[in-house]
Amino acid sequence: MKRDRDRGNTEVAAAGGSSTRKLKMWEEQPQPDAGMDELFAVLGYKVKSTDMADVAEKLEQLEMAMGTTTEDGVSLLSTDTVHYNPSDLSGWVDSMLSEFNPTQIGISGHESSPCSSNLIYDDDLRAIPGGAIFSNYDNKRMKLQQPSPAAVPTAVLVDSQEPGVRLVHTLMACAEAVQHNNMKLANALVKHVGVISSFTNRSYEKSCYLFRRGFGRKIYKIYPNDNSLESSYSDALQMHFYESGPYLKFAHFTANQAILEAFSGASKVHVIDFSLKQGMQWPALMQALALRPGGPPSFKLTGIGPPQPDNSDALQEVGWKLARLADTIGVEFEFKGYVANSLADLDVGIFDISPSNDESIAVNSVFELHRLMARPGGIERVLNLIKSLNPEIVTIVEQEANHNGVVFLDRFNEALHYYSTMFDSLETSGLTRPDSQDSLMTEVYLGRQICNVVACEGVERVERHETLAQWRVRMGSAGFDPVHLGSNAFKQASMLLALFGGGDGFRVEENDGCLMLGWHTRPLIATSAWRLRRG
Amino acid sequence: MSMEEKRGKFCINDNMDVLIEILKRLDDRSLGVAACVCRLWCALTRNDALWEHLCFRHLSPPPPDGVRTVVVALGGYRRLYMVCVKPVLSRLRQGKLIRMGTRHEVELSLSLFCVDYYERLLLGGRIGGADSPSSLMFLCKAVNV
């Protein structure tokens, strides 16, 4: 909870009787450690968590009562009254209310400092270390011993900012605390996020909840070892993400267009997919190849995937289904699957490439290359591997964000904006009902990424997204030249996005030959194509 | 024969070629209505060639021959129209989007149609799944005419 006593005090002095200010109350979620509310306890007040709603309501009544009594109110409240046990907020409010209701008998008391201090001032959020709070409180107590006639200690709450902004500020304060290794403060702030987030609209709520969970893991040093569970349901998660929005479809369609154009004229084509998952990208390419003027080429697909915990051959199953499709539409098809924990473990020898094969090769990576940055030398190894394959084209689709900064705070800020935009686009485009399975699974899918960015370090942190500009530098120095994606890809992508809701929310942007999918002004995904530098 | 007799003897059902010519010019909704008239009409309106015409009516030049094989294999023109072409056309044309040209619309429809087929393949093994997730649900729910 954030309090700004000094500001509040001057506000109190200036308040007078007129008030069109609203009192914002909130429903406190029952804390698992029931009993006294922790945040109040930090400030020196004892309020039972179960009483919170009650106290809030009474405070509201108090504010209304104070607002309506002007002259009388001032004189009433400025009398010298004794307050017993100022930390009992509930009791104090009761006594104040009874003052305004002469029929009720109670201890009349006024204490302006607890009054003004127990409410939220939202003008701006600052991280409050515990010591500063206590010292503020003491100062105030001194100051308000002599009530001045003009000072009406009204319960004033100025909410000059939307809950969403408050939420963001709290999260940023939390990140700063984590950055400085102040876990106790971070902990308190994280709980506060839970309090505020019940007021916000859904997309904020979702992303902030997920960041809060990531922080929780970081603070308590829970680093879930995802690897075993990951592969078994990460495919399903991505499938739901595929269905919940245009992101993956955009990625697939634009990459396919580049591959199609690179393959024009070839009679044998070979695509190497760095993360096959359910193979959703390839039906559209196969259909385009089938309808190619001059007839389809023979199509070979090599799919790479992680090992499955139950040793089932997920890759082969996908390959078989793609083969059925290929058979249906009349494309000669061959499939090979390779299991690897990391792309860096692959060796060029396994791909069975030889110049005598006379096939055109394309390498495709959707949301996969960034994971290699977790291991030193990983990305270099894979880029060398790609070079030794001598492909016609390399298509890379990556998240357009820098989540790989060295400074935690910067990473966090980037991630917060990126994922908030993502959730905003999901919600506004309204493709799936908020409680549908797709929507929930997408939340899990993105939530895992967020947790990884926030809570993990070292080799565990695999969601090391980088921007297109960074990839350009990397690919350029590795010996690749960019291939422009062309107007066909742009048109197809534009049409695809126009099919989705969200008004004009989704945008395709052409960035020096690469295509970016964005939500309003914020780019989310970037597709780029590359080939080996000649000469 | 007198004029009255000649007129009385004319029955559209005896002149199938004329009937088909007329049906070819209808939109999907009218075809649905026509299907309810009688069993003959119902059978005629289910003829895929009619729907092929509906899909590519405005396309010039007409799509290459290979398209028919692929579309039929993936589920037929009626499904293509209901699942892809109709929603794509209606959404793109009502929006502020500049017309991209029907060739692109057709290509996009075909790609989405293929994705639809593959998804049905993927789900084929699952028993008792909830409402079948399809990435084309965002277009519309397919209505059986």
From TrEMBL, chain A:
<dbReference type="InterPro" id="IPR038088">
    <property type="entry name" value="DELLA_N_sf"/>
</dbReference>
<keyword id="KW-0939">Gibberellin signaling pathway</keyword>
<feature type="region of interest" description="PFYRE">
    <location>
        <begin position="361"/>
        <end position="452"/>
    </location>
</feature>
<keyword id="KW-0539">Nucleus</keyword>
<feature type="region of interest" description="SAW">
    <location>
        <begin position="455"/>
        <end position="531"/>
    </location>
</feature>
<feature type="region of interest" description="Disordered">
    <location>
        <begin position="1"/>
        <end position="24"/>
    </location>
</feature>
<feature type="domain" description="Transcriptional factor DELLA N-terminal">
    <location>
        <begin position="37"/>
        <end position="104"/>
    </location>
</feature>
<keyword id="KW-0805">Transcription regulation</keyword>
<dbReference type="InterPro" id="IPR021914">
    <property type="entry name" value="TF_DELLA_N"/>
</dbReference>
<comment type="function">
    <text>Transcriptional regulator that acts as a repressor of the gibberellin (GA) signaling pathway. Probably acts by participating in large multiprotein complexes that repress transcription of GA-inducible genes.</text>
</comment>
<comment type="similarity">
    <text>Belongs to the GRAS family. DELLA subfamily.</text>
</comment>
<keyword id="KW-0804">Transcription</keyword>
<feature type="short sequence motif" description="VHIID">
    <location>
        <begin position="269"/>
        <end position="273"/>
    </location>
</feature>
<dbReference type="Pfam" id="PF12041">
    <property type="entry name" value="DELLA"/>
</dbReference>
<protein>
    <recommendedName>
        <fullName>DELLA protein</fullName>
    </recommendedName>
</protein>
<feature type="region of interest" description="VHIID">
    <location>
        <begin position="238"/>
        <end position="303"/>
    </location>
</feature>
<feature type="region of interest" description="Leucine repeat II (LRII)">
    <location>
        <begin position="317"/>
        <end position="349"/>
    </location>
</feature>
<dbReference type="Pfam" id="PF03514">
    <property type="entry name" value="GRAS"/>
</dbReference>
<dbReference type="InterPro" id="IPR005202">
    <property type="entry name" value="TF_GRAS"/>
</dbReference>
<keyword id="KW-0832">Ubl conjugation</keyword>
Automatic annotation (TrEMBL), chain B:
<dbReference type="Pfam" id="PF12937">
    <property type="entry name" value="F-box-like"/>
</dbReference>
<protein>
    <recommendedName>
        <fullName>F-box domain-containing protein</fullName>
    </recommendedName>
</protein>
<dbReference type="InterPro" id="IPR001810">
    <property type="entry name" value="F-box_dom"/>
</dbReference>
<dbReference type="InterPro" id="IPR036047">
    <property type="entry name" value="F-box-like_dom_sf"/>
</dbReference>
<feature type="domain" description="F-box">
    <location>
        <begin position="17"/>
        <end position="57"/>
    </location>
</feature>
<dbReference type="InterPro" id="IPR044184">
    <property type="entry name" value="SNE/GID2"/>
</dbReference>
